[in-house]
Design brief:
- The mean pLDDT is 94.
- The strands form three sheets. The chain has a six-stranded mixed β-sheet, with no helix packed on it. A four-stranded antiparallel β-sheet has the order 1-3-8-7, with no helix packed on it.
- 0% of the residues lie in helices and 52% in strands.
- The chain is globular, with a radius of gyration of 13 Å.
Length: 124
């Protein structure tokens, strides 16, 4: 199983940019798809972005499209999520995961392989 460690969260002001990182180990990086999810207090975990196993296709939630960029660095075994124009609504714990799947418009992680998350707090 892939071990995932997120980092890069913090307290930022509305309108700022932030880049999150997820370091993966246990399997050859770049041979599986990955994604980012987030969960705000009292809410269900929701999809943010996904990247295909070779990094050829990216997918974004409506809330992130146009403001977020998902990418990977194979040499560093790291997945990134860059977000700009941050809003208070972006406040959540952000998680990365392996092999997210889509059923209709709903994304999930069937193998339940999550990192422990990194907190992003956006103040107005």
């Amino acid at each position: 199983q892939v071990h995932l460690v997120e980092s890069g969260g913090g307290l930022v002001q509305a309108g700022d940019s932030l880049t999150l990182s997820c370091v993966a180990s246990g399997r050859t990086f770049g041979t599986y798809s990955m994604g980012w999810f987030r969960q705000a207090p009292g809410k269900e975990r929701e999809f943010v972005a996904a990247l295909s196993w070779r990094g050829t296709s990216a997918y974004y939630a409506d809330s992130a499209r146009g403001r977020a960029t998902i990418s990977m660095d194979v040499d560093k075994n790291t997945l990134y999520l860059q977000m700009n124009s941050l809003k208070s609504e972006d406040t959540a714990i952000y998680y990365c995961a392996t092999e997210p799947t889509r059923r209709g418009s709903t994304w999930s992680v069937s193998d339940n392989n999550w990192g422990h998350g990194t907190q992003v707090t956006v103040s107005s």
